[in-house]
Amino acid sequence: MLRELPGGAAVQQDEARITAVTADAPISAPTHGGRAKCLQRLVRLDLPVPHTVALGFAAVRDIARGVPPDTATILGHFPEDALLCVRPSSEDPDWGGPGAILNIGMNGARHAALSETLGEEAATSLYFRFVQAYAVHVARLDPDMFDEIEGAGQQALGEALRAYEDETEEPFPQDRAVQLSAVLRSMARAWEGTTARLLRRAKGAPDDAGLGLVVQEMAFGLGAGECGSGVLQLVDSTAGEARVTGRYLSQSQGREALRESDAALYLERDPRGPSLEERAPEVFAELLAHGRLMREKLRDEMQVEFTLENGRLYILDGVRVARAPRAALRIAVQLAEEGIISRHEALMRIEPRALSELLHRQVAPGARRNRLARGVAASPGAASGRVVFSAEAAQAAAARGEAAVLVRRETSPSDIRGMHAAVAVLTERGGMTSHAAVIGRGLGLPCVVGASELRFQMGKKQLTAPDGRTLREGDIITVDGTSGDVLAGAPAMVEAALDDAFQTFLGWADEARDIGVRANADTPADAQTARNFMAQGIGLCRTEHMFFEADRLTPMREMIFADTPEDRRAALDRLLPMQRGDFIELFRIMQGQPVCIRLFDPPLHEFLPSDRAGLRDLADALDLPLSDVTRRVEAMGEYNPMLGMRGVRLGIAVPEIYEMQARAIFEATVEASREGAPVVPEIMIPLVSAKREVELVKTRVDSVAAAVSTEKAARFSYRLGVMVETPRACLRAGDIAQHAAFLSFGTNDLTQMTYGLSRDDAGRFMSAYVEQRVFAEDPFHVLDVDGVGELLSIGAERGRAARPDVTLSLCGEHGGHPESIAFCRKAGFDYVSCSPFRVPIARLAAAQLAIADKIAQPERLVAPISGA
Ligand code: PEP
Ligand code: MG
After folding, report:
1. 303 lies in the same domain as 191
2. 824 a catalytic residue
3. How many domains does the chain have?
4. What is the pLDDT of residues 350-377, one digit of tens each?
5. Which of 94, 248, 256, 593 is most buried per CB count within 10 Å?
């Protein structure tokens, strides 16, 4: 307890500047750092912690500014002959700090005295270690000066002391107070250095982050009896499995046991070698009990640093166990299942983006990375395979059972089958919403786009790295879509981890969240992935991909080339059963869940060949002269196809396509409803900008529904909605919502049109823009809440005002990002829809937002999850 005195705050601060770490000392992480706070907790647990004094941030800041450290007060807490160590204590231990300095107080006299008690060898070694550490880290001398010195005995010590004296032109300081003062000053200054600032800023530390220091009495790991030091943890850091890990090394200090693994003992009995449990069973049992107590009371997996001094155990420190993402998740689940932390706390401990490392294979953390180049990390996960330069070659490789990496300048819909066959995709051009990136994420296929550091010579079938290395077809590379790296060869990988801990964890997330999460899924495989990841339905099924299948491309092209509506219908009649089959399969997989099908969106000429060989094949297939085919393909070209004849414009100009799709959807609805629960399909019209477009399409779709209902003698209902992806649709959402049961915001096109920025070309200059802070982030990647967000808010408000029950959602690539989900929750959206592989990330992010709100306003009632 602090004393209530006049000017209390100043007194409290003063009291806390230098304080012994006792159970009730005024110590907190924001004033003394995480290590000091943790040591206080260990003291409160009655663990055998050597006597410790903490210096608060204010005291250390003064020292860095040149105020002499108050060594008299510090040393007053310790016996006169105690050796000391100093360790950093930053507010968040992850922000780092200068390295610890051990054995402060060693000098000629202590050496002589300790030679009597610990033995000469141990005493000499302690002194030698201290001279070395002091010279390098405090006096900032060149570490090479000790290169010529052999061993750590008397002679070595003499040479080290002489070397110090030669370099500094003064004898090695003998006074403990002088030594301590210099150590404190050098650590305080190191924290203020530019490199340290940059390093900790990269870990999220604020610019004014403080450093505390802890001064601790040394427990000797050297000397007579069983002496040594080690590190214990109760889980492994890679997978988070519960097992004792760590090492112990006799006659050592600090973390030497982890470095010199040959001589180090295992802790628990181990078939691989001798253990501390065998050598000192009581000590091991005591250590284990302390470790377990720390885990329970500090509510986390802790790494315990310990020392044995003549058989007596000391706990020097406890730090959070470093952990890979999969370990972090298992640890959080285990702690919650044992009631050590709450489920909400477990959910809050995992960064949503870290989940993506669990959903895909990754390059193993320690593997050597032979980097060729770097591009945009467009779809996470890593895969190795042989380079191929065409979709056909990827398919041929897959048929031979070989893993292939598809390399293209950029991909187009005609590469889809090749992408399905490949294990990864690498492109020269494109950004986060380019074709390769979107499809890659949907398929869970690792993908690096915009890798323009590499020279792509497609004609020569060759890639050249910036350092001159060349790769030809058949060479093995690795695409790491998590980091954006393209690596030579095939490094070791770690597998995806969708285990029981993962499922349990996401189940808890679903209980906590209050916004729905659906998946963007175009194929049965996507839908199955969406189902496996427990999406609450399909929020966007892009139907155009269905027309690129081999058996569909020809009737599709015939339809495009048809001269009359009758000819067009005849071609569409051939496509109808195939489309119906697609939808029946989707409805079956998604049984009981809503499926939102978007009518045909892209410009038709995407289905036509662009090279001469392709044109010739097409002329053959259609039995038309090549010149005729070439002329008509050219005539269909547009200057700006993304703003041309696509989406609903096509639906109005060539109505037969939407009619065929509507019929396929309704016939599939009737059939799938006969087998199981009634299906209520959702039909979505893309690229709308005017109410009249919706009226025209709605009239036609309604009449197809009536016709199918009569023909099949079946009753069904459906919902018709609009994809809001033009700025005008946002502004006129009030008009549009009159005819729309739902509005789904397509933020890919909306971002493109709001900025007037091509989503396929933005990759070329985006890094320059982000580097120069024109944009804080790539707006195709992270939702621009200021500009695009304002349009979303206007659209949502106006739509809801005109039709209070309208369902609102977001289905662009942003849908799976925590920032966009936060925005959608605030704007009162019903759900977000994202790539299937982002569904788990979205489920967790949504849960964290709801929990954070509850913590901020405990009385807030959580609304039921709306997936509709
Ligand atoms: C969008 O534009 O946001 C969208 C989801 O549609 P697409 O990416 O197919 O244009
Ligand atoms: Mg779109």
Report:
1. no
2. no
3. 4
4. 999 889 888 888 898 788 999 999 999 9
5. 248
